[in-house]
Design goal:
Number of helices: 4
Family: Belongs to the membrane fusion protein (MFP) (TC 8.A.1) family.
Number of domains: 4
Distance between the termini: 66 Å
Main location: other
Radius of gyration: 46 Å
Largest sheet: 6 strands, antiparallel, barrel
Protein name: Efflux transporter periplasmic adaptor subunit
Strand order of the largest sheet: 3-12-15-14-13-16
CATH topology of the largest domain: Elongation Factor Tu (Ef-tu), domain 3
Strand content: 25-35%
Keywords: Coiled coil, Transport
Structural class: alpha+beta
Subcellular location: Cell envelope
CATH architecture of the largest domain: Beta Barrel
CATH superfamily of the largest domain: Efflux pump adaptor protein, beta barrel domain
């Protein structure tokens, strides 16, 4: 009997101790359970704002007007201007090249002599015709009109024709003499000089490549998704042509802190076959004005980057790019819980994104970097109390 009572007593004591431990856990554990850490996040309250869109593009500087300067007559080059050098500037009307004009001066004199002879012959023929009319009148043939041959009308008309021909020959000779002076057709710059003093050129021989300096143009590709955010200059007929296009600022790696300002003036008439994009053309007026104050003036063929002034939006929903994950979703806080939200962006630059769908005003966007966090995780706003910072967590669960 004693052997049976001892084991039963030990068993009863063991059960009593186990029940006491389970029903009265340590205070430290209860405290830890009551104070389980929650994720602390910073949020941004979404609200419509006024936002100026700026679009990025690029292009190469090219002249609006570019020409090949040619000789219209032949001859030896006797003179070239000091401005007739690669990169030289010239004004409209400047004589850039002068050809040997002695042969053309002789042709002018010959044409003048021919004209004088033709006029003398015309005067003589006019006198003969007048004499013929007087003779016919003296004959007094009643009721009959003198025919053209009697009055020498054909001979008179032939003399007048010779005068006209001589005048035309003189004009042509004088024009050829004038063309021995190669005159600048506009204010511009020499892109490439092709001839020099002593060289004999013929008609239509190229002398230089030149371009106008009143404007330069830059052809800018526009992304298809950016077209709706830009006022394109595509007026036609009754449209207000006086309205200026969008402002554009240009920068170049060749200079530091230099900015050229221009405007969009037109778009090309078709989508580019290769890039499948629309190209807009920007224009810079007087690009060489004040060039003495610039370290490096604009050059034809220079690569530049462009910042185009887009639309001014009055009710845009703008969020930072850092709040977007994998380019397609964000996190918002709803009732103390983290919620994943798929979004669509209308446009973005290096810092901001315009939201097209997926978010609305009044929601709280999480701007704290989270990494891989499960939707539905309890969170605490940074302004409401202490909790576990995202950077202190080792793992937060898989993203859904």
């Amino acid at each position: 009997m004693k052997k049976l009572i001892l084991p039963l007593g030990i068993l009863a004591v063991t059960i009593l101790l186990a029940w006491t431990i389970l029903s009265n856990p340590p205070k430290s554990r209860r405290g830890e359970a009551a104070k389980a850490p929650r994720l602390v996040v910073e949020t941004q309250l979404l609200a419509p704002v006024e936002y100026q869109v700026f679009l990025d593009s690029y292009g190469t500087v090219r002249p609006r007007t570019q020409s090949t300067l040619v000789a219209q007559v032949s001859g030896q080059i006797r003179f070239i201007s000091d401005k007739f050098r690669d990169g030289g500037f010239f004004e409209k009307g400047d004589i850039l090249v002068r050809l040997d004009d002695r042969d053309y001066q002789a042709e002018v004199k010959i044409a003048q002599s021919t004209l004088m002879s033709a006029r003398q012959a015309l005067l003589e023929e006019q006198a003969r015709a007048e004499q013929a009319r007087e003779d016919w009148t003296r004959l007094g043939v009643a009721g009959e009109e003198a025919n053209a041959l009697v009055l020498r009308t054909p001979q008179l008309e032939a003399a007048r024709a010779r005068v006209l021909s001589a005048e035309a020959q003189l004009q042509k000779a004088a024009l050829n003499l004038e063309r021995t002076k190669i005159v600048a057709p506009y204010a511009g710059r020499i892109l490439q000089k092709l001839v020099d003093v002593g060289q004999v050129v013929s008609g239509n021989s190229p002398l230089a490549e030149i371009y106008a300096v009143d404007y330069v143009e830059i052809r800018l590709p526009i992304k298809n998704r950016d077209l709706a955010l830009l006022q394109l200059p595509e007026q036609y007929r009754d449209a207000d042509t006086a309205s200026a296009g969008a402002k554009v600022e240009f920068h170049s790696d060749l200079t530091t802190g230099q900015i050229w300002t221009g405007r969009l003036v037109r778009t090309e008439g078709a989508i580019d076959d290769k890039s499948r994009q629309l190209y807009a053309v920007a224009q810079i007026t007087n690009p060489y004005a004040g060039q003495s104050r610039q370290k490096t003036p604009l050059k034809i063929g220079q690569y530049v980057t462009a910042t185009i002034e887009g639309l001014y939006l009055r009710d845009a929903l703008v969020i930072p790019n850092s709040a977007i994950y994998q380019g397609s979703y964000v996190y918002v806080v709803e009732d103390g819980l983290l919620k994943r939200r798929e979004i669509e962006t209308r446009w973005q630059n290096d810092e901001d994104s315009l939201v097209a769908a997926g978010l609305k005003a009044g929601e709280r966007l999480v701007v704290t970097p989270l990494g891989r966090v499960s939707s539905g995780t309890p969170v605490v706003l940074a302004s409401e109390g202490d909790g576990e910072r995202p950077g202190n967590r080792n793992a937060a669960g898989a993203s859904q």
